[in-house]
Amino acid sequence: MKQCLPISHDKTEKPSRRDVLKLAPAAAGAALAGLSIPCVHAAEENGAVGNAFNAPGGPVKLVAMADIVERKLAASHASLSKLDPGKVDVPPERRFVGFDAYKKAIDCLRPGDVALLTTRAAFRPLHLEYAVQKGVNVFFEKSFATDPVGVRRVLKAAEESEKKGLKIAAGTMCRHSRNRQELIKRIRDGEMGQIQLLRAYRTEHFGGLGRKPEGENEIFWQLRSIFHLFWVSAGLWSEADIHQIDEMCWIKDAWPVSAHGIGGRAANSTDFGQNLDSCAAEWTFADGTKAYYVMRNLPNCHNEFATYIHGAKCGAQFSGKIHAATTRLYKDQRFAADNVAWEAPPEEISPWQAEWNVFLDAIRNDRRHNEARQAAMSQLADIMGRAAIHMGRVITFDEVMASSFEWVPGGLDNFNENSPPPVVADAEGHYPVPVPGQWVEV
C-alpha cells in the first residue's frame, strides 16, 4: 500500500533536479524531479506515474517513495525503474516506510511540486490535508473518502488549496475525455432536449474476499483487502462505480438531493468481505430528474459496463466498457447500431493521459486547475447511494453533509499496525455485512 509521489518543474533548457517535474508516492511513495508529486501508492500508481512520464511539456522525474511495507516499496521501485530508468531518481534515503512515511515523502517536495496520492481511500483526506498544508500540488486518485466526515475533510482541504492557488487533479479522468466533452457541449446546446433520465451499469465478476491467513497481522490484512471492507476503500460500490456516478452528475451539471436503493447477496455467497453482490441506487435531482446505477458482482450473468442518457429529443451513450469513450447520439430512444445519428471518432489519447497532460500544463503555465471540490461532491453522491442501499431508506444530500458518521471514530491520524482493528470478523472469519433496516452508516 503506497502513500505518495512528488513531481517538480522549471522552464530552463538544461533541467536540474529542481527543473524536472518531481513525483513522490505516499504509501510506497515516489517522487519525480522537475515537478514533484508525493503520492500514496495503490494499483493505479504505475499507470499514474507512467502518464506523468509521458505528458508533454518538459522533463519529469520520480524523486521519493513511501509505503507501509518495505517489500512493497522495493517492488514498486523496481517496477517503476524498468518503466523509464532515466526518470526515476529515488535513492534509499528517499524511500520511506511506515504509516507516517507519506509525510517524509511529501517533505521532499517544494512549493510547485506535486504529491501523488494513490493509497487506500481511508487515508486520502489525511494525506490531502498534509500536502495542501505543505503547499504542494496534488494528484489524488479515487475513491476520495470513505464516509461523510472524510468528505468534509476533503472539502475543507479543497477550500484551503483554492486560497493557496494550488493545482489539484482528481482521478475522475473521464471528465478529460475529448469525446465526452463534445457530447456535453451538444447537450448544453440543446441537441438532446431536456435530460429526463440517466442510467449506468457495471455488472461483471470482481470476486470476493477469502479468509484471513493464520498469523497475518489483522491491520495489514484489512488494508490488503482493497475494496472488500468499507473503512478501507468505501467498498466495491465506490471503487467500481464512482466514475459513472461522477459522469451522471457531470451530465446533469448538478448534485442529487436524495437517493434510495436496494441490494442483497446470493444465498450461496462464500465472500468473507462486507460487500453486497447486487446493488441498484436511484438519485433524484432538484428538478425531479432521476439517475440510477446497477452493479452486480456475480459470475455467469449478463455483463454490461456503460452510461446512457435519455433526453426529450433523443437518447445517447456516454461511455462504454472499461470507461471507453463510446460516445453516440441516437435518432430517438432506440439504442441500436442502425439508429445512430452521430458517433465520436476514436480518441487519440486515453482519458488517463489527457488528465495528466492538462494537469501538468496547468502547473507549468500557472493556470487555475482544482478538481478537489468536484471530486468530494461526487464522492458524497456515491456515499448517498451506498447508504441508501445498505440502510434501506431514502438518504438526503443534507443528511449526509451533516452526518458525523465515521468508519473509524476519531479518524486515522495516529493509526498504525498495532491499532485496534476498525472492523472485527466473527468466529468463522466473516466481516459484518449490511442488513437493511438495521445497518447505520450515516
- Which band does the percent of strand residues land in? 15-25%
The CATH H-level superfamily of the largest domain is Dihydrodipicolinate Reductase, domain 2
Using the 3D structure, state the CATH architecture of the largest domain: 2-Layer Sandwich
Number of strands: 17
The succession of helices and strands, N to C, reads: EEHEEHEHEHEHEHEHHHEEEEEEEHHEH
Task: Please state the structural category.
Answer: alpha/beta
What does this molecule look like?
The protein is 31% helix and 18% strand. It has 12 helices and 17 strands. The chain is globular. The strands form 3 sheets. It has a 9-stranded mixed β-sheet with strand order 16-15-14-13-9-12-11-10-17. Strand 6 (114-117), helix 4 and strand 7 (137-140) form a beta-alpha-beta unit. With 442 residues, the protein is an alpha/beta fold. The relative contact order is 0.14. The longest helix has 20 residues, at 372-391. It folds into 2 domains: 5-141; 179-349 and 380-401, 2-Layer Sandwich (Dihydrodipicolinate Reductase, domain 2). The protein has helices at 45-54, 70-83, 101-106, 124-133, 148-164, 178-188, 218-224, 230-233, 235-252, 351-364, 372-391, 397-402; strands spanning 5-7, 21-25, 60-62, 65-67, 95-97, 114-117, 137-140, 168-170, 195-203, 258-264, 278-284, 290-296, 304-311, 315-319, 328-330, 340-343, 395-396.
